[in-house]
Amino acid sequence: MPSFSHEALLELLGRRPTLALELLRDMLRLPLPAECTVQVGDSAAARAILEDLMANGTYPYQSDFAKRYVAQGRDEGRAEGKALAVLAVLAARGVKVSAALRSTRGSRGRSPRTRRPT
């Protein structure tokens, strides 16, 4: 589902299409020809393209906040995958692992090492 900021940007650009050129020139410093124009087309088609871009995982995270938490989630997933692989090897070799050792996830999915103090 599109966010409020996504909807607001679509509405803003729909009302003031030249804002797109201003953003490209001023914020992204793209060298656009002076004769560039903007035409407002079918907003449903544009909405569908933007929603598809956002939904299929190709949208690059740009804020440091998002990048940090995506990286943290990726690292936690890799660590959990490695732990499961070790448990599988131990099970294949007949090594019994207690339920307490198997349960390495703390509250809210964090491992005990990274759990925040209460």
Q: What proportion strand?
A: under 5%
Note the total helix count: 5
Q: Give the mean pLDDT.
A: 76
**Helical content band:** 55-70%
Going by helix content, strand content and strand pairing, the class is mainly alpha
Measure the end-to-end span: 35 Å
Which H/E pattern describes the elements?
HHHHH
- The domain tally reads 2
Sheet having the most strands: none
Q: Low-confidence parts, pLDDT < 50 over ≥5 residues?
A: 106-118
Large-scale geometry:
elongated
Could you tell me the radius of gyration in angstroms?
24 Å
DSSP strand count: 0
Summarize the structure.
The protein is an all-alpha fold and 118 residues long.
Salient structural properties:
118 residues, mainly alpha, 2 domains, 58% helix, 0% strand, elongated, disordered C terminus
Can you describe this structure?
Mean pLDDT is 76; it is low at 106-118. With 118 residues, this protein is mostly helical. 58% of the residues lie in helices and 0% in strands. The longest helix has 29 residues, at 64-92.
What is this structure's SSE topology?
Layout: H1 4-15, H2 18-27, H3 43-55, H4 64-92, H5 99-102
